[in-house]
Amino acid sequence: NADQMGEFQWTYQLNSTPDNSLAYATRFGWETRIPFLTRVLPGTGKSVPLAQPASFLQIKPENLLLVNMAPVEGERAVLLQLREIAGKKAVWGVSSSASKVAFKSTVCDLLGKALSDGDEIVFEPLESKFIKLTW
Asked: Which SS3 state, helix, strand or coil, does residue 29 take?
């Protein structure tokens, strides 16, 4: 057939930020494509302070995007897939405000096999890496 039957659906997200950087556009696209899971709890009628946003892991610098995270079976570790999104060199760093645990970072392949183990993990512009984070 020269035609195609079916339905098309489109969604649009608009933003009014003055930031027109590649890093912001990439992060905005990921956040709208894969929205943060939330839960609405019914109010109690009492005035309570608003909860402050928090995260278990703080990944630094801002131009590193967490693409995927999966637990490593049989270990106290997670495998992170990260991508540099601003076109600038980045030095990997991670911390946690929720826990005082010391993390060990190892560059791995897709299956979690160690490729290099060093103090400083550097991302070249637009590079992707897998990092095993052990505690």
From this structure: helix
